[in-house]
């Protein structure tokens, strides 16, 4: 590696590593002079280079460069690019060496072999390196310094967003052109574990320091933001892998939770409000109603079957009697009538279990309370005084084949309140919920359809 | 309390307006704490309702919020399926069973019953007020009698306000206050004739 401490001339095009010896020459970049970078660089140096036992003069050089970089002020572009390029080159070269033995040969003359490429370190380098891009547009081959972690982990993210969500954007006195993400002519393209792009090894291997992780974590934070966390603000830099992981997990958890709320709401027939508490409340009531419905249905079915059985039994008995009678050649009428049990209707309804259900419905202007015990239905209705709701309710009951026995009620304050007792006609099956829904529905409709002077409403 | 707080859609809390917008900084702490209180109450309400929801659902896997909602949703679906299946069964049964002509029997019996018990059909009308009448009607109770009566009355522009209806031995007694729907003046005798006509017609 040829790094001239004093000059700033570097062969930019040589940055694409697999291309040969030229590749290792660094580009001139503006040094990223954020404190941030300083920190990281400071810490990267020992970490990175500590692992490399082979470096001799280069290391020294690097150290020197690093120190200068650290000490130097932002305006000093002389030596600093070299440092970054240096580290960059080393890692790159090392990888190149590992991958293509031949190519590395040349570079290895200059750069002693390094330990297995440290992805994190590499990312870090890229991160730094990117920030130090010079004003002149880098050549395509050198544009492999886009935001590497982003592209690494999520190649699908659009290039534009990379700029938006770059937490360090404001820190890099940047020239306006962010290297497009898509063009990742990344030297590591051919890496074996490239397939695993989605999984970034966070607890990196080989000497990643806290600083690097922090850096990395930021990048991942950026990545996460881009991936669709619309709740995280731009530039969130808590730092630390664990924290960003946490944010991501938390956000996922939140979205999933919201989805579940929506799913629950979709099951409920009449959701009025759309906030969590009322969704849960409505769901609870709906479940209760469904339970009542199921109970009622079961009872009705049971009774029907029971009733049928009895009928069958009676008929069977009657037939037997008939046959007997016929055999005995006696007048069969009387025997048959004798067999018919009297008042079986009453017995039928007391099958052992009492059917009881209670359903309430409320609307803005109406309240309906329906209670069913066996075959008696009690309906309580309260409505703001406007129309003759009694008429409509009786109509509904007539439709439902309910036999009105008793009605009482009238005008109380601002409301009409009525209590209706009716009987279910035999053979018809109505459920409490049906009754309640229908009543309140029709009554409400009539209410709203009525013109202010409550004249006769057409039904 | 909830007036000033925008309702959450999907749990987004971004639109929440605190209550401290009316007063200046001096009252800030007071309003802030009110908001805090409101928020606390809101959360309590939510958690209570969640608990009740959980208590209803028989199948509980885990005890965390997400599974409550999930389990509740599956339970609702299951119940719905049950209801559908059962009502299908019921429909089948109804289709195959015979519906006896019992209704007619009842009606015929009613008239006979009434007569047997010495209850006579009757119409009485008395004026209470300029706009109110009190009526008393005794008619044999048949299936649709009352409905028809009400309908006819409403067509004629009457409305029953305070009503009491009872059924006894095939007769139905209607005792009610009646008003003109549009507040017109009613005369007792005329109304009585009208009512009698109506009853005959039913």
UniProtKB/TrEMBL annotation, chain A:
Residues 16-40 are annotated as: Disordered. Gene3D superfamilies: Helix-loop-helix DNA-binding domain. GO terms for cellular component: nucleus. Keywords: Nucleus, Transcription, Transcription regulation. GO terms for biological process: regulation of DNA-templated transcription. Its main location: nucleus. This is BHLH domain-containing protein. It comes from Eucalyptus globulus (Tasmanian blue gum).
From TrEMBL, chain B:
InterPro entries: bHLH_dom, HLH_DNA-bd_sf, TF_AMS/ICE1/BHLH6-like. GO terms for biological process: regulation of primary metabolic process. Residues 30-79 form the BHLH domain. It holds the Pfam family HLH. Keywords: Nucleus, Transcription, Transcription regulation. Its main location: nucleus. The keyword Manganese does not apply. The keyword Glycoprotein does not apply. GO terms for cellular component: nucleus. It is found in: Nucleus. PANTHER family: TRANSCRIPTION FACTOR DYT1, TRANSCRIPTION FACTOR SCREAM2-RELATED. This is BHLH domain-containing protein.
């Amino acid at each position: 590696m040829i790094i001239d401490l004093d000059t700033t001339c570097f062969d930019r095009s040589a940055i694409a590593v697999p291309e040969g010896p030229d590749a290792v020459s660094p580009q001139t970049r503006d040094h990223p002079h954020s404190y941030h970078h300083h920190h990281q660089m400071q810490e990267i140096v020992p970490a990175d280079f500590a692992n490399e036992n082979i470096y001799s003069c280069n290391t020294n050089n690097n150290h020197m460069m690093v120190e200068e970089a650290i000490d130097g002020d932002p305006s000093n572009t002389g030596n600093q690019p070299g440092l970054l390029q240096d580290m960059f080159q080393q890692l790159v070269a090392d990888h190149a060496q590992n991958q293509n033995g031949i190519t590395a040969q040349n570079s290895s003359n200059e750069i002693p072999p390094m330990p297995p490429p440290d992805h994190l370190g590499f990312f870090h380098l890229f991160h730094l390196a990117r920030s130090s891009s010079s004003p002149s547009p880098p050549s395509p081959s050198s544009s492999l310094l886009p935001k590497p972690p982003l592209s690494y982990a999520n190649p699908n993210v659009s290039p534009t967003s990379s700029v938006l969500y770059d937490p360090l954007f404001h820190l890099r006195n940047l020239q306006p052109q962010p290297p497009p993400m898509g063009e990742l002519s990344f030297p590591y393209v051919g890496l074996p574990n490239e397939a695993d792009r989605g999984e970034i090894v966070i607890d990196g291997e080989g000497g990643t320091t806290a600083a690097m992780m922090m850096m990395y974590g930021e990048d991942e934070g950026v990545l996460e933001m881009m991936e669709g966390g619309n709740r995280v603000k731009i530039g969130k830099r808590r730092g630390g892998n664990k924290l960003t992981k946490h944010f991501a997990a938390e956000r996922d958890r939140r979205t999933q939770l919201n989805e579940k709320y929506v799913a629950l709401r979709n099951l409920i027939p009449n959701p009025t409000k759309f906030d969590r508490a009322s969704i849960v409340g409505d769901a609870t009531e709906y479940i209760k109603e469904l339970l009542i419905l199921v109970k009622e249905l079961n009872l009705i079915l049971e009774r029907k079957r029971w009733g049928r059985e009895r009928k069958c039994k009676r008929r069977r008995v009657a037939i037997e009697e008939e046959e007997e009678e016929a055999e005995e050649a006696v007048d069969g009428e009387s025997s048959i009538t004798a067999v018919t049990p009297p008042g079986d209707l009453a017995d039928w309804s007391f099958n052992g279990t009492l059917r009881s259900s209670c359903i309430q419905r409320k609307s803005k202007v109406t309240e309906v309370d329906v209670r069913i015990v066996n075959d008696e239905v009690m309906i309580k209705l309260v409505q703001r005084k406007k129309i003759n709701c009694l008429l409509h309710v009786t109509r509904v009951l007539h439709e439902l084949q309910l036999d009105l026995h008793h009605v009482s009620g009238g005008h109380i304050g601002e409301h009409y309140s009525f209590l209706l007792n009716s009987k279910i006609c035999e053979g018809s099956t109505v459920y409490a919920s049906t009754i309640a829904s229908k009543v309140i529905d029709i009554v409400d409709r009539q209410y709203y359809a009525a013109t202010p002077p409550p004249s006769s409403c057409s039904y | 309390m909830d007036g000033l707080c925008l309702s959450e859609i999907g749990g987004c809390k971004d639109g929440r307006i605190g209550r401290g917008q009316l007063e200046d900084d001096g009252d800030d702490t007071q309003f802030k704490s009110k908001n805090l209180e409101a928020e606390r109450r809101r959360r309590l309400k939510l958690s209570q309702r969640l608990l009740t929801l959980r208590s209803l659902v028989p199948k509980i896997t885990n005890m965390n919020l997400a599974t409550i909602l999930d389990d509740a949703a599956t339970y609702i679906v299951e119940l719905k399926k049950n209801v559908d299946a059962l009502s299908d069964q019921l429909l089948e049964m109804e289709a195959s069973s015979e519906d006896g002509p019992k209704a007619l029997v009842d009606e015929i019996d009613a008239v006979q019953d009434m007569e047997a018990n010495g209850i006579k059909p009757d119409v009485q009308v008395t004026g209470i007020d300029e706009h109110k009448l009190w009526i008393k009607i005794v008619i044999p109770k048949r299936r649709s009698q009352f409905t028809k009566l009400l309908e006819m009355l409403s067509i004629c522009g009457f409305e029953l306000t305070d009503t009491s209806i009872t059924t006894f031995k095939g007769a139905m007694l209607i005792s009610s206050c009646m008003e003109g729907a549009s507040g017109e003046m009613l005369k007792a005798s005329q109304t009585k004739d009208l009512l009698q006509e109506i009853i005959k017609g039913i």
